User: Fold this.
Amino acid sequence: MMFIVKTICLCLIFWGLCYLGTGTDEKNLKGLSAYPDAIQRKVKNDAVLGPKVKSISPAASFLSNLLLYTVLLLLICFFEREEGFFPNFWKVLIMGESLNLFDFFVIDLLWWRHTKRVRFTGTENQPELYCDPKNHLISFVKGIVMFFIAAVIAGLILSCF
Assistant:
């Protein structure tokens, strides 16, 4: 039961962080890679926003997220660790993939695509530009792999204690 409560809390905290990380052009720029390609092109070609765009390699992004979520899930599951690799692995995997599913369906497909909070100046009245789910789907698939690797690492560490 506590595991389910922790997973729900993790999802809600993540949503809160997504909400707080949006709302202005400057904040929205941090997550530009998740935006549909049409929006990314508009922003990069914008005279004001274009020079502010910072890019990070996909490999660096994946590795930094892997480290962040491995540590986070390790800390959350540390006090409920069990003997052996597989019980810990499954617990971390289920929690991570639950967060990934929540992010994809609730945050990306339901909230993000329909809120004006994530829209850049000049595109506020063009909601159709924000509806392409391709980049969200790619992130979801990457998340499946990332949370699997995180579960392997965390499962190994938790089984050592």
The chain has one domain: 2-159. Residues 68 and 110 are 25 Å apart (CA to CA).
